[in-house]
Amino acid sequence: MPKFPRLAIAVAASATLTAALAAQPAYAAYQRNALPIVRTAAHRAAPPPARLSPAQARAILIRAARRHNLNPNFVLAVSYWESGWNQAARSRTGAVGLMQVEPYTAAWAGPSLLHRRVNLNNPVDNAELGAALLRSYLSQLRDPKLALAAYYQGLTGVLKHGIYPSSRRYVDGIWRLRNRFQAAHLGG
User: Fold this and answer.
1) Domain-located, residue 39
2) Is 42 a member of any domain?
3) What is the pLDDT of residues 97-108, one digit of tens each?
4) What is the pLDDT of residue 132?
C-alpha cells in the first residue's frame, strides 16, 4: 500500500477518534479547564461546586471541626492554607474543595471514617471528611504537627520517617496561621 493512502486513513481515524472523544462530557470538560473531573457515585460529571462566601465557608468548617472534637482554628488554618476557603479550588494533583481532599482518599476515608460515601464537591462533605482525617491522624499520632504532616505527606511516611524536610514549610505555615486565627478568635 502506498504511503499517502495510509496517511489519509490514519488522519481520518484520528479525526474520528477525536470527534468521538470530544463528544464525551468528561473529555470535553477536561479540555476546557485542563483539570481532572471528580465523578459522583453515579459516575456522572459532578456539578460545579457551590460558591461560598468566606463567612459561609468558615461556618461549615467550624461545624465540622466541632463535630470531630477539633480546635476550629486548626481546621480553619488547614483549609485556608489548602484552598483559601474556596470550595471551587482544584489542585494540579486532583485535590478538591475547601480541605483539598484527593478523590482516592475520599474513596476509602469516607466509608471508613464517616461510614458513608462523600461528594467532594459538596462543601459540607468536603469539610467533614477533611476534619475526620485530621481527627484520625491526631488520634493516632497524638501531636498536631505530626497530624498536619500526615495530612500532607501521608500517614505511612510520618510513621516511617517523621516530618519530611519538604513538609516542614507546610506544617509550620499552618501552625502560624492557626495561632493567628486563635489570637483573633476567628474560630469562636
Assistant:
1) no
2) no
3) 999 999 999 999
4) 98
Distances (CA, A) of 11 to 7, 17, 91, 154: 6, 10, 35, 45
| Residue 16, domain member (yes or no) | yes
The answer to whether 129 and 61 are in contact (CB under 8 A) is no
Q: Which three cell numbers stand for residue 47?
A: 456539578
Residues 148 and 170: beta-carbon distance below 8 Å: yes
Please tell me the distance from the alpha carbon of residue 31 to that of residue 52, in angstroms, as a whole number.
26
Report the C-alpha gap between 23 and 34 in whole angstroms: 16
- Residue reference for cell 461545624: 63
The tens digit of pLDDT for each residue in 70-84 reads 999 999 999 999 999
Nine cell digits for residue 70: 477539633
| pTM (2 d.p.) | 0.74
